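Aim 2 progress. For Bifunctional purine biosynthesis protein PurH, the working sequence is reproduced below.
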Amino acid sequence: MTNLYPVRRALISVSDKTGLAEFGQALIARGVELLSTGGTANALRAAGCEVKDVSDVTNFPEMMDGRVKTLHPVVHGGLLALRDNDDHVASMNEHGIGAIDLVVVNLYPFEKALARGAAYDEMIENIDIGGPAMIRSAAKNHGFVNIIVDVEDYAVFLSELEANDGYTTYALRQRLAQTAYARTAAYDTAVSTWMAGQVGDAPRRRSFGGQLVQELRYGENPHQAASFYADGSGRAGVATAQQHQGKELSYNNINDTDAAFELVSEFAPKDGPACVIIKHANPCGVATGSTVKEAYQKAFDCDRTSAFGGIVALNQPLDEETAKEITGIFTEVVIAPGASDAAKEVFAAKKNLRLLTTDGLADPRAAGLAVKQLSGGWLVQDKDTGFVPAEELRVVTKVQPTSEQMADLRFAWTVAKHVKSNAIVYVKNGATVGVGAGQMSRVDSALIAAKKAERMAEALGLPAPLTQGSAVASDAFFPFPDGLMEAAAAGATCVIQPGGSMRDDEVIAAADEAGLAMVFTGMRHFRH
Ligand SMILES: NC(=O)c1ncn([C@@H]2O[C@H](COP(=O)(O)O)[C@@H](O)[C@H]2O)c1NC=O
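Predicted structure tokens for this construct:
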């Protein structure tokens, strides 16, 4: 690919004329020939720049209120022709097409018109066609052509010309092209989102690449409109699941089912049955068992109160016995990688219960993006696919965990990754026995989980709180010994946490004094 390439001819067509005069003058000073559309040409001439009208190059007047100005083979041929391709060069010569080495375009201010609530016809006239077409042509041919869409790139561009004696590097042209495509994408997103609002009902397609799975009756609350889109990745989960029965899923059902299925997918079927029960996107019971039914029962026994109206996810197909067990209380959704005919038969009597089956489990290590919208922007990050292999776990206390304790610690750690922060998870014999979620204080999470475990023990007629002799996980480090001590007071005998606090020494000393075994993971699992 050509690296340095000269800039001899530029086409400038900008709605926002900020910095135009100086930029035009600087280009002329470097011997660059300027072509321009109507208003831009006027502004450049007013700044003393010599400029040729695009209409003189196309031999067509700008027409239809500016809808057609630069949409011409003389322009797009000059942008798209490969300079080192003999056929392309021959076509240029045959049709009198001159190469254009730089395009400077900023688009009709559609977004500004939207912000000021312009009327429909005005919005339509603010949809730029010729500008994006030139941006895309120039960006495609970035091997030779430069595309500037942002005023702040004028200075960068001039420095590059200065540094390379009127030439630009491939690296710069590639970076400008990437920016350019992001610009047209954002522009079209704005247009299509506005149009979605005009159309009214849920658009079948949205510009973030989603495809409508279903329109929802409402969102998180009845006054919020909502719809559900698949991202086209085909990942096993609620977006691609098959619904066999029950009412239409609600927004909250979908959100909770996703949380349930993503967590249960952490448990490989070859390691035995696992069950997750979710309420309000947090697990209120997670367990493994020798059968699917046992896994469900153990998960249910963690917090029977919260499990009412919950979402159940299984890592193995739903069987008849488990189906019967689940129908013992009101459950909103069951999701599993399959269901036997007999299980479906059991559910058939429960008209409100939704049964979803998936094509296997999701891969918890598969990379992806987590996107969150907030006021005025988007927060984008990698999905939390973090995993700490057993050999990287570090015992930091005098007491070493037994192999049973280590198994429970690792189980608790896996669950904690899926609990809203601050997360504290107590586990005994492959089942959660207390989950503290979403508290602003880690100590409170430890206390709440222990309190719930106490209440469950009473309900089950057990003499001691369920947390007695448990393993406990904390999604982030204990900044002080107090949270750890609450867990010890609840009966925990071993702890897993990331470590890394300024006061790790104090926390380790407290653990040693209490006779706890403590393991550091070196990785945090915040979830907000
Ligand atoms: N139709 C066309 O061929 C066309 N070519 C360029 N434009 C836009 O016209 C604007 C500049 O117009 P002017 O130079 O007349 O101020 C730019 O925002 C540019 O993106 C066009 N306008 C809209 O599509």
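Residues 170-199 form the longest helix (30 residues). This observation will guide construct design in the next reporting period.
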